[in-house]
Amino acid sequence: MTKQVYEIRVEGFLGDRWESWFEGLTIRQLQCGQSLLKGPMDQAMLQGVLLKVGDLGLKLISVQPSKSGGLGETFTIGKDQDG
């Protein structure tokens, strides 16, 4: 299973206590009044995180693959990449 590192920006500040609720994603508070959620996700996890953002009533600013190599561009979990 291949995962991509994504960056999700939302309006407002989310504290560190939300990291466990967002399945271990890193949360950073930005000076512009936004929070950045970042971490490796497959498509199912990405959709789940976006549902949680909506459930919290947070305004979604952007979702994009990470261009920085903080956690790597992509990585593979498991032995078989094809299935």
SSE sequence, one letter per element: EEEHEE
Question: C-alpha Rg, in Å?
Answer: 13 Å
Q: What do we call the CATH topology?
A: Alpha-Beta Plaits
**Major sheet attributes:** 5 strands, antiparallel
Instruction: Identify the CATH class.
Output: Alpha Beta
Unreliable segments (pLDDT under 50, ≥5 consecutive)? Answer: 71-83
Architecture per CATH nomenclature, i.e. the level-2 architecture: 2-Layer Sandwich
The total count of strands amounts to 5
Number of domains: 1
Strand content: 35-45%
Q: Would you tell me the structural class of the helices and strands?
A: alpha+beta
CATH evolutionary superfamily: ACT-like. Chain A, domain 2
Mean pLDDT score, rounded? 81
Helix-residue proportion: 10-25%
Q: Count of DSSP helices?
A: 1
How far is the N terminus from the C terminus?
7 Å
Summarize the entry for a quick read.
The chain has 1 helix and 5 strands; from the N terminus they run βββαββ.
Characterise the protein shown here:
This protein is an alpha+beta fold. It has a single domain, classed as 2-Layer Sandwich (Alpha-Beta Plaits). It is 16% helix and 37% strand. It has one helix at residues 43-55; strands at residues 2-11, 26-29, 34-41, 60-65, 74-76. Strands 1, 2, 3, 4 and 5 form a five-stranded antiparallel beta sheet that branches. A hairpin with a 4-residue loop joins β2 and β3 (34-41). The longest helix is centred in the middle third of the chain and has 13 residues, at 43-55. The chain is globular and about 35 Å long.
